[in-house]
Amino acid sequence: MIFAPCLRRDIISSMKLTIGDKAPDFTLPDQEGKSHKLAGYKGQWVLLYFYPKDDTPGCTKEACMLRDNYSSFKKIKAVVLGVSIDTVEKHERFAQKYDLPFPLLADIEKEVVQAYEVWGKKKFMGREYMGIRRWSFLIDPKGKIAKIYEDVKPALHAAEVLADLEAMI
Predict the structure, then answer these.
(1) What is the per-residue pLDDT across 108-147, written as a single tens digit (0 to 9) for each?
(2) Does a structural domain hold residue 1?
(3) Are 169 and 78 in contact (CB under 8 A)?
(4) Which of 30, 71, 93, 102 would bridge with 80, disulfide CB 3.0–4.6 Å?
(5) Catalytic positions, please?
(6) SS3 call for 68
């Protein structure tokens, strides 16, 4: 008799998250040191957006577009959570500098970026390195992935997500 090993996402990295999957839970601190657990947002829509680095051009553009559209997210009771591997202190400076009204979560151990499979090889100006891919996950009120946005365009992302939420709600 042959026994097959149990397939688990935390062991088999080639398994890709797909629409309908239960979103991996996590607990991370925000820019104020307050702890956020994904399960704590059950019953609400959540935009979980991953970005490479605080205070860089693309990341700033994306965060400011989300900030500028934040009242629309609040109106439909959707939560916005940003995640990068920057520290709580860097998040605090970034959030204050641009008056960001939503939590920026510090994943310094890279556990969440790996669980959501956004940590990987990137290329820039002919150089390869490991980093965060600019992806987002729209998570439904039951905690399931409703939409995955790969290769996000920072200037257009907020409007794209709001249009999708309006269609889904």
Answers:
(1) 999 999 999 999 988 878 888 899 999 999 999 999 999 9
(2) no
(3) no
(4) 102
(5) 59
(6) helix
